[in-house]
Amino acid sequence: MRTTLLRLTLPAIALSATLSLAEIPGNEDDKKFDDFVKNLDLEASESYEFHFKDSGTSVGFKISEPDKRKKGMFVPENSATHLEGEVIAYRLSRYLGVSDIFNPSAYYTLGPQAINRFSGILRSSESNKWRRENTGNIRSAIAKSPDSLLGIYKYRSKRESQGVEILASGNRFNTSQSFAKFLTGGGTMPGTDTMSFRGIVPDEPGYPAPLEMECVLADQLSTIFVIDALCGQWDRFSGGNIEVYAHKSGRLQFVGRDNGGSNLLWGRSWYSRYKGWVTRFDKPLIEELRKLNQFLGDQSTPYHGLSDKPELQKQLGFMSDSSFAEFEWRVKDFVEVHVPACEKKYGEAAYFKIPAPDSESEAGPAASSTQ
Asked: Around Cβ 209, how many Cβ atoms within 10 Å?
């Protein structure tokens, strides 16, 4: 649960905020998401059902086709959902090739009919003070602009996310946990033994117990934290936001699902914390970040088909020049200062050792553990 209230005034949103995602790299699921959002028309009241989001501090609604599962959710600017942060985190994960562990989201603007339906399901009273304030702010936004309300459409997985509560303590990463030490260059190198976390259960009765190799899980969480650091995340540790999916196959996976607590203009204290917590990295991720940093400094070589920074800024979904300037600084500092310092101090131990797909440990079947 979040307990910090964001008081934000969004900059003017250019039409480019809802640009086509056709040129953004991504996997097959990303492309399916792009196509879905491109064709999503919430003005068509007979095609979609709205279900009020009655949990958490953010106020919005879940979306389904008639008599089908809730596939997505619309959320306007909320105390715990900064639209820019949500979108940038996902789009950056696509450019860096790690979107398989991030939840898709995209800017979406409600029209008058959808706004009217949304207004009709807002509750007149809320027991939670953050929800009361969010509801009041949404009503004010609608009163000022009854025909247009900017927000985000967030994909909802078939899997129910589960929080790994032992990894957060006092709104910080719980570095006393042995798993946390896997993310540091001076800590034990995670191996191929499979593991899970206390309290994590199969997504459905009859599914196998969720497990994954230590090195894979540590690599995933390190990657999420790196993107958190670059995007200004401050809300990963407030409760329930270090999340995993327990897949039908029995595979356990970290996911960056809730990325709205990100604001690049809120100072660098969280950025410094993340650098202290993460000193072991996914090597392909760092290689891709170096390419991005090179492009930001010198556009002589195209980056994923882009030839200038304003184009990249637009494709990543930045709403303001100030946010993008801070992002540039963080990428440069991370790639040119933090990573080299870790490499110098820890050598090869600054990077995870991930076995090739389908390879087997020479030691035989891996053991399993629960933390």
From this structure: 14
Per-residue pLDDT at 370: 81
Among 75-84, 131-140, 219-228, 335-344, name the one with the lowest average pLDDT: 75-84
Q: What gap in Å lies between CA 87 and CA 259, rounded to an integer?
A: 8
Q: What is the pLDDT of residues 221-231, one digit of tens each?
A: 999 999 999 99
Mean pLDDT, the chain, whole residue set: 90
Q: Helices then strands (H, E): number in the chain?
A: 11, 13
Residue from 205, 268, 203, 274 nearest 237 by CA: 274
CA 59 – CA 75 distance, rounded (Å): 7
Q: Which residues lie across from 256 on neighbouring strands?
A: 102
* Residue 197 to residues 149, 167, 186, 307, 349, Cα–Cα distance (Å): 40, 10, 22, 44, 24
Distance separating the N- and C-terminal Cα atoms of the chain:
22
For residue 67, what are the contacts with CB-CB under 8 A and spacing of at least 6?
Answer: none
The full DSSP string for 196-238 is E-TT---SSTTSPPPBEEHHHHHHHHHHHHHHHHHHTB--TTS
d(CA 225, CA 342): 16
The three-state secondary structure class of 122 is: coil
